[in-house]
Amino acid sequence: MQSEGLKLILSGPSGSGKGTIVKELIKEENFVVSISATTRKPRVGEEHGKHYFFKTTEEFEEMIAKEELLEYANFCNNYYGTPKAFINETIKSGKDIILEIEVQGAMQAKSAYPDAILIFIMPPTFEELQSRLIGRGTESNDVIEARLNRAREELLAFKEYDYIVINDNLEDAVTDIKQIVQAEKLRSYRYKSYIEQMLSN
Amino acid sequence: MQSEGLKLILSGPSGSGKGTIVKELIKEENFVVSISATTRKPRVGEEHGKHYFFKTTEEFEEMIAKEELLEYANFCNNYYGTPKAFINETIKSGKDIILEIEVQGAMQAKSAYPDAILIFIMPPTFEELQSRLIGRGTESNDVIEARLNRAREELLAFKEYDYIVINDNLEDAVTDIKQIVQAEKLRSYRYKSYIEQMLSN
């Protein structure tokens, strides 16, 4: 049955390893990662339409006005946002789109796309999260403390998600997500036209 | 994470092959098939507590009165029903229970167990269902016609189910159900105590 791809929204606290999981998933051709639009200047090696859709501030604000963005935010005087068009084209082609969004953006995305599948990536324990953040050795204690507090808050949002994937082991976490995708493709609402056609013959 | 098993309700029209699927599933030790209670006499080889729970009419009516049955019906002056106790013991042990119930019983079961997972087994096409029913060669045309009409009605109930599994190929259908089970074990509501404990440390 050829049908629309799924919209997968992945969130998880810093240190949950969601970036690595996404990199693993998109090795399979049915997964496409959402491309953000931004007004910041391209860095060396970054390509338009691959890493970002690079926009002028005027273009970006026009996208906002036309409601062409699923969600957007402004960091350090640059806009970042998720264009709906790319998501819609991807799912129409039958591929599954992955949106890596933080908790608040995920809630916005869910209200725009009620059929999106929300997956929360978790560290196995809070201590593990702590040691992963410290392990990077790149952040000050204050930054780590702030991130842990934020992680604690974000973890409380788990109830708003459809699924929890505990990232104890990368391979298992990737398998979990693939199984969620397989199961979600068997949801009854996706079979409406198939069954109606079957019965009309 | 040790937690309760799932309650899987499998329905599907006669000829959908759900019986064969159940036989395949219970080869895995995490699946247990629900055992019915009945007042009919045991046939040769049938064991109490394995094929059925054999009850006197008085015992059965006491189970009805005490609301110990998930659903029950009377065929040819014999009661048949699904005891809740066996279901509850099974899921408490962490195993997943399979209930093979027809559409109407499945709706009753869903209202008793809102967290039950409803899976509808479908033939790949209506023609295939027809040829499977005729292929048995054991039924008259009238019986086949009546079953097809009933199948048509039952198929319309697909919307009430969580998932659709098309039984085109036995192995694929069994894999689909296993993937549904794996995904359902990742549902966020199942992680409530896990996450609360994680954050309380």
TrEMBL record, chains A, B:
Outline the extent of the Guanylate kinase-like domain.
5-182
Superkingdom, taxonomy of origin:
Bacteria
One matching Pfam family: Guanylate_kin
EC number assigned by the record = 2.7.4.8
The main location class comes to: cytoplasm
Q: Can you list the GO cellular component terms from the UniProt entry? A: cytosol
| Keywords recorded for this protein, A-Z | ATP-binding, Cytoplasm, Kinase, Nucleotide-binding, Transferase
What CDD domains has UniProt attached to this entry? Answer: GMPK
Name the family.
Belongs to the guanylate kinase family.
What is this protein identified as? Guanylate kinase
The organism of origin for this protein: Zhenhengia yiwuensis
